[in-house]
Amino acid sequence: MVVGVTASVFESAVIIGIFTGTIYAMMALGIVASFRINRVVNLGIPGIAVFGATIYFQMSNVWGAPVLVALLGGLVVGGVVGALLGFCNLKMSAWPRGFVMIFTLTVSLFLFGWSDKILPPIQVSPASPFGDSGGFKVALTFVSNHQIGTFITCILVTLLMGWVVTKSRIGVYVRAIYDDGDSAATLGIPLGYFVVGVWAVAGVLAALAGILVSPRVTLDPYLILFVSIWALAGSILGGLESFGIAFVGSILVGLSQGILGGGLIHLGPGLENLGAIAVVAIAVFYAGVKRRDLAHIQT
Amino acid sequence: MIGTRRNGGAAVAEGDSSTSADETPAQAKKTRVGLPPTRLILPTIVLCLGLSGEFILPNHLTYAASTALCYGLVGLGLYLPLAALRELPLNGAALAGLSAYLFAYHASGGAANKTVIGVLVGVGLCTLVSIAGGLASLVVTGLYFTVASLVVQIGIEKVVFSIGKLTGGAAGRGVAQPDFTGYFNTTRVVFLITGVTCLVITTTVWRVKKTKTLSNWVMTGHQPEGADAVGIRRWVQKVVIFGLSGLLIGVAGVLFAFVNGTPPPPPQFGVIWSVIFLAIPIASGLRTISSLWAVAAVFTALPIILESHHINPNLLSGSILLVALMASQSQDAVMARIRNLRRQPEVIEELALAEGHQALEEIHEKPVLATAPAKVKEVDLRTKVSRALVGTDIGVTFGGVKAVDGVNVRVGPGQRVAIVGANGAGKTTLFNALTGFVPLSKGTVQLGDVDITGVPAYARIRQGIGRTFQLPRLAEILTVRQNVLAGQAQGEDLIPRAEWLMERFGIMALADIPIQVVPFGTRRKVEMVRSLARRPEVLLIDEPVSGLEDEEVGELLEVMLELQAAEGWGLLAIEHDLRFVTGIAEQMMVMVDGKVLTEGSITDVLADERVRQVYLGEVVSV
Questions:
Q1: N or C terminus: which one in chain B shows less Cβ crowding within 10 Å?
Q2: Beta bridge partner(s), residue B465
């Protein structure tokens, strides 16, 4: 009986971990998309996520628009902000990448501030696009339709993005620009359109992440900022280049929080994050060393 | 022909008659100009701001000024790894918080000994964590380092700051402050103590910046392989920089607690604050320390000025960051405009770039010297006892690829050996293997009788191996002279020899010009001078004449041959230019696919039909 309960607890921890990881993965896809074109870590993703979710909330909960229309509104706004950010990136091509990264963070702060002005002064959770009710129980955990919908959406988007980058003509152009922008331009690839376009796609993914994440964690900028930091850590496992590895890395972070956190929380408050931090630290070092060795070979 | 050699010595320029015998022309020019008065404006303003905080400002603004000093100190701590190593640490706030809470935890009793223990524990642990970060940056750099530091920030924020016993919960732990009333009340005395602490630290950092240590730091961060090539122990430099950085941030953390009377709550040490702290040195343009303090003052003053407008804190932080970034990126343009308005072309440092171009024109007319200048100072060029560099059965593997496979190479004292081969033949990898820049999969390397197989690159350089790179590894923001003298060991005086070599290679006029404005060919000469300045026993040069004009190749050849004949070091050169190869080498080695195709005297090797095929790009199997 005890073994049965322990097994159920473990299964629940795994399920919680996977769905937490899915939330990170949604955010990680946007980070990878923007890095995949000009090697800038887009810290504007949490801002766009919050702003996209705010628009979605405003349209669906305040103005009473149908969920699909509100979803479209949130995604379009995310895409536009992403495109603007991409355009700024073009203008900042001479800046050190670290500085551009900090610039993207300023955009997040602006969007957080703007969202604060739009949203009511209490914590809100927008309605889920997959419905607020329904679901089933696995082990000791209730799995909602929203979680299942988010998980499936995340996998579909990961597969789609992976296919576009590796199989399509657009993907070839994107990889060419990523490898050497100047050389790609000499081949006639319109650098500006692609950078703006890919950052717009990253904006759409960020807004989608915000819309799918906020029903779970509430529409709080700082909670979503922390989600994006875990997402960044998860995506760095694949060198910020691979959608697939970013997905797996994010799930790994979620799992480590679910499984290790579940055990460590009894040791003291705050320690539930210790396992995830250790996993992320190992991942960052592994990825960094791998990248260094690769650079050595290329030299 | 080495100019006027006398008594076993050689010649160095004394400069023109208007300068003293020991001064270089650039030094003389600098002496005449002196410190430009414009350089004193900002430090004066910062000092005046500090004094006004003590004597003029109302209490609440004096408190704000104390906070600004704490911000500035964290910014100064982050400035060191950022400017010297080009690493962006995103954990400044967490480190400051860690120090503040540890200090308050120990000092909350109020006793003097507890306060001292609190300072030591807080600052000490902060320094240790920062040093650990520095050691980590030997393994992961750039983006990965930034993310690793972010992980440290989150770790401290989520785990350590959630321990209520440490942070003191919502009320926090009180820290003793001096009790004064009247005009010089507690707030002003706290500001005085904070200000004096910051002044002492700033002066120390400023003094350190003026020493040769700066060149070593910059070389370590900007050109790691270049640092190895001049014998700099990179890990030591990183430990020192990050240790100093952690120390400053730790002191700032203690001051945060001291100024407030209790450490600020954990959100004040959150990730957003790490970014804001990092924005302080970035906005200052990473140039002068006084500009950093000015930015810290502005960062603190803006929220106070805008307080009545009830601006959203996120919008405010975003605006401050944005202004900081724009200011840092447009600083050059603004300064150029100010200079044009003032028309002060004599300010040497501010016009370094413009002077670079002028000096380059001079250098173009005055290439490598075939003869020494008329007025000379003696430099010892006597033959040094050199040892042979011997590589036996060298193998280097990258993944499954054998880049070098079973190569034997020997360069004895006074010998000149050239390695030729197509691109990808493994020539540079062999160089890297001999000098310790890549690990061997098999084989041994010896310098004389000493086995140096497992010895790190910097230590091999110190033992007497000199090398240059296919693409010169020079720190762009350092001057020619600083690049040449970087890595100078304690008690070692490279200056006379380095200056003599710079004169011989025709780059003396560029000595005080930043590398970023000198052309590729000149960079090669700088790197050559840098290696030769250390009196190597064996010199390895990788494509030394690529990027040089035909005329310069001949002149370089002449100087190299004469120096080598005079000093007796062994020379191993990789070169595609057959004219240079035949001119400089006695022995030749041809490599194909990581193996030696043939070797021997240069005439025999060049007569080999297979060598001709290699040069024509035909497939030749070993």
A1: N
A2: B538
Is residue A184 within 8 Å of residue A78, measured between CB atoms?
A: no
Task: State the sign of the Cα–Cα–Cα–Cα dihedral B219, B220, B226, B230.
Answer: positive
B473: which chain A residues are within 8 Å (Cβ-Cβ)? none
Q: Are B9 and B378 in contact (CB under 8 A)?
A: yes
Task: Per residue of chain A (299 residues), give pLDDT as tens.
Answer: 445 556 677 777 788 888 888 888 988 999 999 998 888 889 899 999 999 999 999 999 899 999 999 999 999 999 999 999 999 998 888 887 878 888 898 899 899 989 988 988 888 888 888 887 777 877 777 888 888 999 999 999 999 999 999 899 999 999 899 888 888 888 888 889 999 999 999 999 999 999 998 887 788 888 888 888 888 888 887 678 888 888 988 888 888 877 776 665 566 666 667 777 887 788 788 877 777 666 555 44
The Cα A200–Cα A179 span in angstroms is 20
Q: What is the CATH number of domain B387-615?
A: 3.40.50.300
Rounded Cα–Cα distance for residues A62 and A58 (Å): 5
φ, ψ for residue A269, nearest 5 deg: -65, 145
Closest CA to A146 of A58, A79, A212, A60: A212
- CA-based max dimension of chain B: 97
Residue identified by tokens 């992403």 is A82
Question: Measured between beta carbons, which residues in chain B are less than 8 angstroms from residue A285?
Answer: 136, 139-140, 144, 148
Q: Which domains does chain A have, with CATH numbers?
A: 2-298 (1.10.3470)
Mark which residues 192-231 of A lie under 8 Å from B by CB. 221, 225-226, 229
Helix, strand, coil distribution of chain A in percent, nearest 5: 80, 5, 20
> How close A151 comes to chain B (CA, Å)?
26
Question: Do strands B401-411 and B416-421 pair parallel, antiparallel, or not at all (unpaired)?
Answer: unpaired
Residue intervals of chain B classified under CATH 3.40.50.300 are 387-615
Q: Tell which wins on pLDDT, B305 or A155.
A: A155
What does residue B597 show for φ and ψ, rounded to 5 degrees? -80, -50
Which DSSP symbol is given to B264?
P
Q: Considering only the beta carbons, identify the residue of A99, A270, A292 that sits closest to B325.
A: A99
Ramachandran angles phi, psi of B465, nearest 5°: -100, 130
Q: Which of A48, A56, A55 is nearest to A111 (CA)?
A: A48
Q: In what order do the strands lie in the sheet with B450-451?
A: B401-411, B389-398, B442-447, B450-451
Residue B460 identity (one-letter amino acid): R
Q: Where does CATH 1.10.3470 sit in chain B?
A: 37-341
Chains A–B, number of C-beta pairs less than 8 Å apart: 121
Place of tokens 């000469």: B525
For B90, nearest residue in chain A (alpha carbons): A102
* Full-model pTM: 0.78
Residue of A95, A232, A277 lying closest to B155 (CB–CB) = A277
Of A97, A233, A297, the CB nearest to B151: A233
Are the CB atoms for B515 and B475 separated by under 8 Å?
yes
Q: Say whether B271 and A106 touch across the interface (CB within 8 A).
A: no
Beta bridge partners of A135: A144
Tell me what percent of chain B is helix, strand and coil, each rounded to the nearest 5: 55, 10, 30
Read out DSSP for B97-149?
Answer: HHHHHHHHHHHTT--HHHHHHHHHHHHHHHHHHHHHHHHHTTTS-THHHHHHH
List b or e across B5-31, with b for residues whose CB sees 16 or more CB atoms inside 10 angstroms: beeebbbbbbbeeebeeebbbbbbeee
Q: Which helix (H) or strand (E) holds B406?
A: strand B401-411
Q: Is A288 on the interface with B (CB under 8 A)?
A: yes
Among B135, B140, B163, B310, most A C-beta atoms within 10 A, so best to mutate, is B140
Tokens encoding B186: 């507690």
Report whether CATH 1.10.260 matches the domain B37-341. Answer: no
A264 touches chain B (CB under 8 A): no
